[in-house]
Design a protein that fits this description.
Nucleoside Triphosphate Pyrophosphohydrolase; 15 strands; 2 domains; about 400 residues; NUDIX_hydrolase-like_dom_sf; NUDIX_hydrolase_dom; about 40% helix; six-stranded parallel beta sheet; alpha/beta; single chain
Length: about 400
């Protein structure tokens, strides 16, 4: 099985026979697994939500649910086998019934299909299936755990919709050790209960199920559907074409954030350890997203460290530039799509307590303070040239105080 990178998300390229074997293995290997079903809208959402991006890329399978992903893969010479959430749900239900495995449906309270609807269709279509259904909110609470803990299903389906269902699975799966497989399926049960009619098979094969749904919806739901279609057929192709054919020739505007504090007449600088590369220490950094250096640096520190206990001191534009391809042995952020990065510097003084710092789990494995004169040797070797430049700017800024 290969993964195909589409806008930074690793999409699983797998045929259906291999897929069912893979799922069978998930249920028998003694470990926990989760499956996601990205479509163009989900991938676009991941570009706005770093935690969601991390969760999608750490799934055991990311099955393409959307004809837009097939078209994107074709431009890169791949033929993706589309697997819809609805088809996946049916096959797993069949497998669970035949193998006498318990399943639970954690059904969003505001779904089109109510608990009673799902119970009726499961009893009718899968009479030997051992199942439980809980109606839940997008804000998960402990009472639900008590019921699930008693039933102890091996498979759970979560219908909260993206990104809530994926975040729930990632954050809560370890708390349910009896679950072997978790799947975020959105509105897939609405097809089983006939709350939503699927398009005829020829239309699905041609990839026009989305158009069928537009004509079938009425009133407010048609408007909601049209907004989704706009994202999938206009915004997604634009973003993909830009990522695939334009960004590889450009450098991404980026800001490195030098957060310092004064302690016993010496300056100490904060470093973070990359989650995806143990032992790789660096200054916090991120894209400027069209903002000036100070605004972008303030946002990055707030988002990455989850603190606002700092005050800006200085900012500098375009201090350092590097290509991703030059960093041999280092797994670069190729999901960004750019040729490399051109980096500015934001300097800020930390005015809080250490317990005010809580780095995002999806970016960072740890953090520490280092003496300013140890900054260069404290960062990863690929960061040292830039660190020398930033330390010089920092020392000059401190001398002006």
């Amino acid at each position: 099985m290969d993964n195909i990178n589409i806008l930074g998300i690793g999409i699983s390229s797998i045929d259906k026979i291999s897929l069912w074997k893979k799922i069978g293995g998930f249920l028998s290997d003694g470990r926990q697994h989760y499956i996601v079903t990205p479509n163009p809208e989900i991938i676009l959402e991941s570009l706005r939500d770093e935690e969601f991006w991390h969760i999608l890329n750490h799934a055991d399978l990311a099955l393409p649910d959307g004809v837009g992903l097939k078209f994107a893969a074709w431009t890169m010479g791949f033929n993706l086998k589309r697997v819809t959430g609805a088809d996946l749900t049916v096959e797993i239900l069949k497998m669970a019934e035949s193998e006498n495995r318990k399943i639970a449906v954690l059904n969003w309270r505001k779904s089109l299909s109510r608990k009673e609807d799902i119970e009726t269709v499961l009893r009718k279509n899968y009479p030997k299936l051992n199942f439980a259904i809980e109606e839940v909110d997008r804000e998960w609470s402990m009472p639900y755990y008590q019921n699930i803990n008693v039933f102890q299903p091996e498979i759970i389906f979560v219908t909260l919709g993206a990104p809530w269902q994926e975040k729930f699975i990632y954050g809560n799966l370890p708390k349910m050790p009896y679950v072997k497989l978790a799947v975020g399926v959105g509105g897939s049960f609405d097809f089983l209960t006939q709350k939503i009619k699927r398009a005829p098979k020829p239309i699905r094969v041609l990839g026009f199920e989305w158009l069928w749904r537009v004509f079938k919806e009425t009133g407010g739901r048609r408007l909601w559907r049209l907004k989704r279609i706009y994202q999938a057929v206009i915004i997604f192709p634009y973003k993909f074409i830009k990522w695939r054919f334009i960004l590889p020739f450009l450098y991404r505007p980026n800001v490195a954030c030098l957060l310092f504090k004064k302690e016993n007449d010496r300056y100490r600088i904060l470093l973070t350890e990359r989650k995806d590369d143990p032992g790789h220490w660096q200054l916090p950094q991120g894209g400027t997203d069209g903002e000036n250096i100070e605004t972008a640096g303030t946002r990055e520190l707030s988002e990455e460290l989850n603190t606002n206990k700092f005050k800006p001191l200085a900012s500098f534009e375009n201090l350092y530039k590097y290509k991703f391809a030059d960093r041999t042995g280092y797994r670069t952020n190729q999901h960004i799509g750019y040729r490399g990065q051109k980096q500015g510097l934001f300097i800020a003084e930390f005015i809080g307590k250490d317990e005010d710092i809580d780095p995002n789990y999806w970016d960072h494995a740890g953090w520490k303070w280092v003496d300013s004169d140890k900054l260069v040797e404290g960062v990863h070797e690929v960061r040292r040239t830039a660190a020398k430049i930033y330390l010089e700017k920092f020392n000059k800024a401190m001398n002006k105080q």
